[in-house]
Design goal:
This protein has 187 residues and is α/β, with parallel strands linked by helices. It is built from 3 helices and 9 strands. The protein has a single domain, classed as Rossmann fold. The structure holds inosinic acid (IMP) and magnesium ion.
Length: 187
């Protein structure tokens, strides 16, 4: 697959917009309403998986109407230039928070094979939170190799490589306000 030339704008690699800014924001508002209802009166801790989940987290948390804490983890799954999971996720940044007895909601950009989230969920479960659930913006169900219990899902999407709204292609274009499908030659 050709390497992305960072000097080019995203238009050079965009096949089509899959989810517009309006679609994303309106679905995130719905998710926030549901989460605010489900966790009312609980001490909610949102854990964002860097770096892809950060744009979703920042919009989601501003739409929540309940008090909550946030913390971050970073997991590396893909080798440079790869478009699929290398199969060996590595925790490169761990939490600052003790999650024992906490109501934890993991906030992630996309679940693809499920290998990354499975690894994180297993690790966090050993720390005995009161609850541990997943809120994922995008679900590529066709690609799943490990079952992931996703309590909140923004959108189910086809098996194509996407970028924008936190998701990168070779670490670029995370800032776009929409989700786009990359052209076939870059898949
Ligand atoms: P999984 O371990 O295969 O489920 O992959 C999870 C991670 O791979 C996500 O957190 C993303 O960072 C990345 N990923 C999976 N699919 C895509 C995609 O289509 N575009 C950009 N990143 C992706
Ligand atoms: Mg990610």
């Amino acid at each position: 697959m050709p390497k992305i030339n960072p000097a080019l704008g995203y238009e050079a690699i965009l096949d089509r917009v899959l989810l517009t800014e309006e679609q994303l924001q309106s679905r995130i508002s719905e998710l926030a309403t549901q989460i605010s209802r489900d966790y009312a009166g609980m001490d909610l801790l949102l854990i964002c998986i860097l770096r892809g989940g950060v744009v979703f987290l920042s919009d989601l948390m501003r739409k929540l109407t309940i008090p909550h804490h946030i913390d971050f983890m970073a997991v590396s799954s893909y080798g440079v230039g790869a478009r699929t999971n290398s199969g060996k996720p590595r925790i490169v940044l761990d939490l600052n928070t003790d999650i024992r007895g906490r109501y934890v909601l993991l906030v992630e950009d996309i679940v693809d094979s499920g290998i990354t989230l499975d690894h994180v969920l297993r690790l966090l479960q050993t720390r005995e939170p009161a609850s541990l659930d997943v809120c994922v913006l995008l679900n590529k169900a066709d690609r799943r190799v490990v079952h992931i219990p996703t309590r909140y899902v923004g959108f189910s999407i086809p098996n194509e490589f996407v970028f924008g709204y936190g998701l990168d292609i070779d670490e670029l274009y995370r800032n776009l306000p929409f989700v786009g499908v990359v052209k076939q030659e870059y898949q």
